[in-house]
């Protein structure tokens, strides 16, 4: 092997300080490693197989060691204010988006952050526009609150997925109230460009829609792409946008339950609070608050290292799929640690999820959870170490050779 090739191979396979071995992962009581049996390798729910950033560990340890379990105050204020300030500071530093911490409502999770604005800004029977496929709970929110789903298809145009609001022009009517935007998009991994976002903004303004912009994957963006907060596009779009995000995906702390909801104007916040009292939203707990603040203010060196690894993992996944199973279609995600695999050309006689579960002993996320029409798709979570990623790819290729 030439020296350059050997170096490249070493770079691909070298381990990271944050890698956790399979034995440690199998002892975890998280969803990812608990749901399926010991025979199965999990690559489904959006949790990473990595040890968290040391500042987060220290923040959690500080609370536990001191048994500091009272109603949390930080800097003379309720602890949620510290989260709002850390969020505002991070948005300015990373995305040049200037916001007022007073417009931030801390909460426990983003599904709650989707339900609440849907309830506040629409009535049963009203329409909600949602990119499809999408994160499954969004569909649940629309169904369980009795709203009408208006699907905005994410179309595969050869090199990536795009959505065009012109396609749903006739489906949107005076009772359509909300547009749920997910950017970076789960599961396609798209990071929408400024032009695409501007087109969505014009659509929201023309149709007088409130936008719920889920930006939870904003920190997980690969070179060549840039995350643009939707509400940063201008004051008129901010005034109709509720942004929801949390550090749970990028810093791997989903069990600590802390998130934020940001209103793009005081009027929007007032309208919301008239329908949904702040007390109904609850407060995040002290450990979640301190872990979030530590992640957002001190976690970037860890995240930079994780992103460098995720980029190598993404490229390895795409290269191996193209080489070993070219029938599977997959565009390199521009953001997120999730790849959306179109297995239609394999001609399976079961769902793609069932095939890989039964024949490869892998648990992906089933495509039909993201769109009932997508049973021949699976979502592949590649936030794992290179040895586990290789084991997943080996299992896939072996199952298909049989
Ligand atoms: C797009 C999107 N929104 C919201 C969530 C929920 O995040 P959490 O439960 O940590 O609030 C997820 C989790 O995977 C997600 O991918």
What does this structure look like?
The chain has 402 residues and is α/β, with parallel strands linked by helices. It has 2 domains: 3-52 and 300-401, Aspartate Aminotransferase, domain 1, CATH 3.90.1150.10; 58-298, Aspartate Aminotransferase, domain 2 (3-Layer(aba) Sandwich). A hairpin with a 4-residue loop joins strand 7 (155-156) and strand 8. It is globular and about 60 Å long. The protein contains 15 helices and 16 strands. The longest helix has 25 residues, at 300-324. Strands 4-12-11-10-9-5-6 form a 7-stranded mixed sheet. Strands 13-16-15 form a 3-stranded antiparallel sheet, with helices on one face. It binds pyridoxal-5'-phosphate. Residues 46, 109-111, 135, 182, 186, 214, 216, 246, 248, 254, 259 line the site of pyridoxal-5'-phosphate (PLP). Residues 46, 109-111, 135, 182, 186, 214, 216, 246, 248, 254, 259 line the site of pyridoxal-5'-phosphate.
Outline of the structure:
By secondary structure, this protein is an alpha/beta fold.
What tags apply to this protein structure?
Aspartate Aminotransferase, domain 1; Aspartate Aminotransferase, domain 2; alpha/beta; binds pyridoxal-5'-phosphate; seven-stranded mixed β-sheet
Beta-strand percent range: 15-25%
Named CATH architecture of the largest domain? 3-Layer(aba) Sandwich
Report the radius of gyration as a whole number of Å. Answer: 21 Å
CATH superfamily of the largest domain: Type I PLP-dependent aspartate aminotransferase-like (Major domain)
In CATH, the topology of the largest domain is named Aspartate Aminotransferase, domain 2
The neighbouring-strand order within the major sheet is: 4-12-11-10-9-5-6
